[in-house]
Specification:
This protein has 464 residues and is mainly alpha-helical. Helix content is 54%, strand content 4%.
C-alpha cells in the first residue's frame, strides 16, 4: 500500500520526477520488490521523511528488500533477480521520493477498512447478545430514530430490527419472555443505535479524509509545469490524517467498550439468568471467566491508545519544522485499537453463541441462527474447560473475512423488501393512550429501506 500510494502521488505530475524514474518504481512494484521500511521514526511533517527514505533506499539498490521470489535480501540482488536496475536519481528526484504522508495514509487506510468491517458485524453480534439476554427491540422503533435523525443511529436501528424478532423473522426465544416484567434494558443493549451509530458515522468521516489524502499531491516543493513555477508550501503536513485517525481510534474503541460490558452481562448469572460464566459445573469449570478478563484488558489498553498523539508536537529541523503532526503514531495506534476491537467482539460472539446452548431447544431468528451456524462451523460448544485461544482466533478470522456479515446480509435485504408487515413489537415498557394491559399493535406500513439507509414506501415504488 505504501509503495502504491507513493506511485499515485508521483504520477500526478506535481513532484518533478522523470517518467523514466517513475517507470522504474512501477516496475519494482509490479515485481513485488518491496523495500524494508520501519513503521516508526516519522513526525508526520515534512511528510513521512524517514520511512519514505527507506522506501527509496531499496529502490536505489541499498538496504534490504523483499520479494516472493527471493524473500529478504540485499536490495541490489533482489532487484537483479527480477532483471531490474537500481534507480539513479536526477535533479529534484531525491526530495520527490521522500516527501509525503503516505506512511500515515497507508496504515490509516487499513485501519479505516478494518473498522468498517468490524463495525457492521458488531451490530450483528450485539443483536445476538440482546436476544440471549432476553432484551427487547422496542427501543429500536423507527419513530424513535426519526426524532433524532443521525444517519448512523438510524442504520444501526434498522439492522437490529431486521435481525431481531419480527413477523418476517420470528424468534422463539423472544416469544418465551414476551410478557416479562422487565422495565427496560441496560444501556449496552438499549443504546446500541446511539453508540454504534456514531462509530459508523466516525468511520465514514475518516474514510472521506483518508480517501482525499490518498489521491492528493503531498510533495514539496510542488511543480506546476503549466505555470512554469515551482512552489514550496505545506501539503506534506500530516495534520489532516493524524487528527482523523486519532478520531477513528476514539470512535471505534466504543464498540469494544460496549462489547465488553455485554460480555459481563452474559457471564454474570445475576444479570443473565444463565449459568455462571456460561459453563456447566461452575467451580470445576471456569468457562468464559478468563476470556472476559482478556476482553477487559484489551478495552483498558485501548483507553490509553485512544489518547490523541496529534495533540503533541516537537520542533525539528532547526525550528523550521516547528509544528509537526505526529501522524505516524496516530495511524499505528488506530490500527492497534481496531485489532483489539476485533478480539473483544470475537469473544462476545463466542459467549453469545455459548449462551444459546442453554436456551435450547428454543430457536432465535433465521438470520441469528445463520450466525450461530457460521460460528459452530469452526468452534464447537463448551461442555468443559479447554484451551480457548485457538477458538478466539478462529472467530477473529471469521470477522476479518466478513463471514458473519455475509451470513445475515441477505436476511436484512429480505426484511426490508417486505411491504405491509407490522414493524412494531410488544413491550411492557411501552403504552398507548386508551389501552390497558397487553395489546396488539396496529400494523404500520414499513418503508423499504436499503442497507445504506435510503427508503421509499411501497406506494412510491409503484408509481415509478
Amino acid at each position: 500500500m505504501l509503495m502504491a500510494l507513493r506511485i499515485n502521488v508521483l504520477a500526478k505530475g506535481y513532484s518533478g520526477i522523470s517518467p523514466q524514474t517513475l517507470q522504474q518504481v512501477i516496475d519494482a512494484f509490479n515485481a513485488n520488490c518491496l523495500s524494508w521500511v520501519p513503521e516508526k521514526g516519522t513526525v508526520g511533517a515534512s511528510g513521512d521523511l524517514c520511512p519514505l527514505a527507506h522506501l527509496a533506499l531499496g529502490l536505489m539498490g541499498d538496504g534490504k528488500m523483499w520479494s516472493p521470489h527471493t524473500g529478504w535480501g540485499d536490495a541490489k540482488y533482489v532487484l537483479e533477480s527480477h532483471n531490474l536496475q537500481p534507480i539513479k536519481l536526477l535533479p529534484k528526484e531525491g526530495i520527490a521520493m521522500i516527501n509525503g504522508t503516505q506512511l500515515i495514509t497507508a496504515l490509516g487506510a487499513e485501519a479505516v477498512e478494518r473498522s468498517g468491517i468490524v463495525a457492521r458485524q458488531a451490530d450483528v453480534v450485539a443483536a445476538l447478545s440482546l436476544e440471549v439476554l432476553k432484551g427487547t427491540s422496542k427501543a429500536f422503533d423507527d419513530d424513535i430514530q426519526k426524532v433524532r435523525p443521525h444517519r448512523g443511529q438510524g442504520i444501526v436501528a434498522r439492522r437490529l430490527r431486521a435481525l431481531l424478532h419480527s413477523h418476517t423473522n420470528p424468534s422463539e426465544i423472544a416469544e418465551s419472555h414476551r410478557f416479562c416484567n422487565r422495565v427496560q434494558d441496560a444501556y449496552t443493549l438499549r443504546c446500541c443505535p446511539q453508540v454504534h451509530g456514531i462509530v459508523h458515522d466516525t468511520i465514514d468521516f475518516v474514510r472521506g479524509i483518508i480517501t482525499i489524502e490518498m489521491n492528493s499531491a503531498t510533495d514539496n516543493p510542488l511543480v506546476f509545469a503549466e505555470r512554469g513555477e515551482t512552489i514550496s508550501a505545506g501539503n506534506f503536513h500530516g495534520e489532516y490524517p493524524a487528527k482523523a485517525l486519532d478520531y477513528l481510534a476514539i470512535g471505534v474503541h466504543e464498540l469494544a467498550s460496549m462489547s465488553e460490558r455485554r460480555i459481563e452481562r452474559l457471564v454474570n448469572p445475576a444479570l443473565s439468568e444463565l449459568p455462571a460464566f456460561l459453563v456447566k459445573d461452575g467451580g470445576l469449570n471456569s468457562g468464559f471467566m478468563i476470556a472476559h478478563c482478556t476482553a477487559a484488558s484489551l478495552v483498558s489498553e485501548n483507553k490509553v491508545l485512544c489518547h490523541p498523539s496529534s495533540v503533541d508536537s516537537l520542533s525539528t529541523s532547526a525550528a523550521t519544522e516547528d509544528h509537526v503532526s505526529m501522524g505516524g503514531f496516530s495511524a499505528r495506534k488506530a490500527l492497534q485499537v481496531v485489532e483489539n476491537v476485533e478480539s473483544v467482539v470475537a469473544i462476545e460472539l463466542l459467549a453469545a453463541c455459548q449462551a444459546i446452548e442453554f436456551l435450547r431447544p428454543l430457536k432465535t431468528t433465521s438470520p441469528l441462527e445463520e450466525v450461530y451456524k457460521v460460528v459452530r462451523s469452526v468452534v464447537r460448544p463448551w461442555d468443559k474447560d479447554r484451551y480457548m485461544s485457538p477458538d478466539i482466533h478462529e472467530v477473529i478470522d471469521l470477522l476479518r473475512k466478513e463471514k458473519i456479515w455475509s451470513a445475515v446480509r441477505h436476511h436484512i435485504e429480505h426484511y426490508f423488501a417486505e411491504d405491509d408487515i407490522p414493524n412494531e413489537v410488544f413491550s411492557p415498557t411501552s403504552s398507548k393512550v386508551g389501552c390497558s394491559g397487553p395489546h396488539t399493535p396496529t400494523p404500520k406500513r414499513r418503508r423499504r429501506t436499503s442497507l445504506n439507509g435510503n427508503s421509499k414506501t411501497a406506494n412510491e415504488n409503484s408509481k415509478k
